[in-house]
Design goal:
seven-stranded mixed beta sheet; about 150 residues; about 25% helix; alpha+beta; MutS, DNA mismatch repair protein, domain I; 7 strands
Length: about 150
Amino acid sequence: MTSEGIHPQADPVEIDPVPSGAGEGARAAKAQAPRAGEGHVTPVMAQFVEIKAANPDCLLFYRMGDFYELFFEDAEQASQALGIVLTKRGKHLGEDIPMCGVPVSRAEEYLHKLIALGFRVAVCEQLEDPAEARKRGGKSVVRRDVTRLVTPG
């Protein structure tokens, strides 16, 4: 594997570091997360919604410990495309939040499948240890941001 974690022999993919303003002017995907101001949103889900809003043309692989999780329409699309279970995590505006996830240890395999199907994926990593977030207070959320975009080549 290369330093980016993609086999050179694999189907062509571009792996780009994320420039500031990524996602602006790009085609809008079907996946639409709710806006942060819509009803009660947990701190983690508010963070997801904010990051997703900056990357509307991508499925968002959102790091949660040992998994990358996808929510809302991203989860519905990814679960169907990958043949993985669609479940739920909490509620938003009285509705279940669709969720699916893949283990970090198998993320590259799932990324390749999504790219082969024409999806763009924004990979959102944890930028600090959860213990650091706890030092800021009980409701503090682990800092996360998109660290790379994976697109069909």
